[in-house]
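Database export, one record per block. Field names are fixed; values are copied verbatim from the stored entry.
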Amino acid sequence: MRRHLQAALLVLTGLGLLHASLFTDLCLRYVKEGQRPLLIASGALLVLLGLAGAVLDRTAPVEDGHAHGHDHSAVPRVAWLLFLPVLSLLFYAPPALGAYTASRTHDKAVKREQYFDPLPATSPLPMTLSDFTARVQQDPEQTIRSRSIRMTGFVTPAGRGGGWYLTRIIFTCCAADSQSVKVRVYGTPAPPADTWLAVDGTWHPGGTLGTRSAPAALDVHHTARISPPINAYTDDLPLTPS
């Protein structure tokens, strides 16, 4: 791979990172929002290095008919494969994580709460999947009983037994360390996998509410399709696209 092609590869890689992190939200499929400034800085640096390399190669002094910057060394042909991930960043981004990943990742352990704040009187009450699970399995006051809850997530089929889960995938840092949190849904047939929904319902009774024997499950009263939220890989209340 000659020097001008190496420079082109650096520039294209930088443009791919800038496309994914500065001009679109594609980077949020793979990393948390807090990593975006680092990706933008990395993309800009790669573009500058590539352009600087190209300029220095063109302006290198000529001796015996050859520029000092001219590279006669051979590089393995496999190096050309580096262009494939670069082009994919620009023209074909890998799909977002969804039901396939959630069915194969470990469920995120719900944090042990020492104290639960009183629930507001809002009905239906917006709640994250993690908060709902913690209330169901840890709240000795059983404040979740008979409350109408609204949660958002995507559909993950439950497998051989049928049924489905409302799911969120959570990044600690990036897609490589993703975990999922799921709430089993009853009362309505399973929509297509990966469908994003806002779901209203009440806790599905089972076990003893406020203990680990109680299932994180919901009897659905209403569902509505929604667009994937901006913060799709957190378990926060959703931020919807403007």
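Remark 1: The mean pLDDT is 83.
Remark 2: The radius of gyration is 25 Å.
End of record.
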